[in-house]
Specification:
The chain is of the alpha/beta class. Helix content is about 40%, strand content about 15%. The protein has seven helices and nine strands; from the N terminus they run E-H-E-E-E-H-H-E-H-E-E-H-E-H-E-H. A seven-stranded parallel β-sheet has the order 3-2-1-4-5-6-9, with helices on both faces. Strand 1, helix 1 and strand 2 form a beta-alpha-beta unit. The longest helix has 21 residues. It starts with a strand and ends with a helix.
């Protein structure tokens, strides 16, 4: 398989990259980036691009599957409009280009609570992206809904750091219908994404799939 990874520099994306490169089902990993990664591998094709001009690189999107882990925070982006561009504009453009170039599978990192009708800006943007990607008609679409992602980030996010410290205790209280709100290791999410993508190499996509992956599904797929 030839797989494109959007967001290879992030917490989860970096682990997805490691996983894809290690799998024999994957012959090539295409990673559009703003700045080259230190990772060197014979399967890895890094291309520095201007994400505002993805149309100039449409040929790159001629792949079998796309994994999208693009995302930021409003504080890091600097404004709601800038956040919207990174979390909705770029992923949607990648999905559109991939579909136009024949990509058959799209695996999207979204978030628990995503809904285009949400009154919470973050959740609403995530939901709008999901709705728009569904309209593209990918034969295989998997949307991941993790809660708080656990792991070592390059940048410090104070609110998340406090949540991470409390999460082991909180997770034990989140049972039954509340299980989907449990914090989860980014490495676990990455393994699930990699396993899901690589499973598509074994069999052709016989019928359209549109799956939403929450905590239980993610842990199960991660093995």
């Amino acid at each position: 398989m030839k797989v494109m990874l959007m967001g290879a520099t992030g917490l989860t994306g970096g682990k997805v990259l490691e996983g894809l490169l290690a799998r024999e089902e994957v012959a090539r990993v295409v990673a559009p980036v703003r700045h080259k990664l230190p990772t060197l591998h014979e399967k890895l094709e890094q291309i520095e691009i201007d994400f505002d001009r993805m149309d100039d690189h449409s040929d790159l999107f001629r792949v079998d599957a796309i994994v999208c882990c693009l995302g930021t925070t409003i504080s890091k982006a600097g404004s709601q409009s800038a956040f919207r561009e990174v979390d909705l504009g770029y992923p949607l453009k990648a999905a559109e280009l991939g579909r136009s170039q024949g990509a058959r599978a799209f695996v999207l990192m979204s978030a628990i609570g995503a809904s285009s009708s949400s009154t919470i800006f973050y959740n609403r943007v995530k939901g709008e992206l999901e709705d728009a990607v569904r309209e593209l008609g990918y034969p295989y679409l998997a949307i991941y809904h993790p809660s708080l992602l656990l792991g070592d980030r390059r940048e410090q996010r104070r609110a998340e750091a406090l949540g991470i410290k409390a999460m082991p205790l909180i997770n034990r209280a989140l049972i039954g219908p509340l299980e989907k709100y449990r914090g989860i290791e980014a490495a676990t999410v990455a393994r699930a994404m990699v396993n899901e993508v690589c499973s598509l190499a074994a069999e052709p996509i016989a019928e359209r799939v549109d799956q939403t992956r929450e905590y239980h599904d993610i842990v199960s797929l991660a093995g």
